[in-house]
Amino acid sequence: MLEINGKDNTSSFGFIGSHTESARKRESKENTQRYRIYKRIMVTYFSELHFKHVTNVDKSAYMLIRQTELAKVPDLTEKLETLFTDNYAYFE
C-alpha cells in the first residue's frame, strides 16, 4: 500500500481482515485479529489528513479513502461501500 500510495496520488484502499479457521482455533468474522492488527498499521502509516478511515467492525472491513478524491466525488464512500456489497456476498 505504501508503494502504491507513493506512486499514485489518487489511490484509495480497502481490505477485509480474514478470520482464522483451523483445527485449533475458530475465530468469529467480527473484529478479527487480522483486522485489529491491520487497523493499527493503517492508523500509523496513513494520516487522516490524507485519508478518510472508514471501518466496519462487524465485517472486519476497512477502507482508506483519499481526501482529495473524496473532495472531487462527495459520495465516494457510499460508492465504495456498494462496490464491497456487490462483489462480496459476505456483506449482504
Structure summary:
This protein is α+β, with helices and mostly antiparallel strands.
Q: Write down the overall geometry.
A: globular
pLDDT under 50 segments (min length 5)? none
The count of β-strands is 3
**Order of H and E elements:** HEHEEHH
Strand portion: 15-25%
SS content category:
alpha+beta
Q: Please give the order of strands in the largest beta sheet.
A: 1-3-2
The helix content, as a percent range, equals: 40-55%
Total domains:
1
Radius of gyration: 14 Å
Main pleated sheet: 3 strands, antiparallel
Subunit arrangement of the protein:
single chain
| Number of helical segments with 4 or more residues | 4
Notes on the structure:
The chain has 92 residues and is α+β, with helices and mostly antiparallel strands. The chain has one domain. It contains 4 helices and 3 strands. The protein has helices spanning 2-7, 33-45, 67-72, 76-87; strands spanning 13-16, 51-56, 61-66. The chain has a 3-stranded antiparallel sheet, sandwiched between helices. The longest helix is centred in the middle third of the chain and has 13 residues, at 33-45.
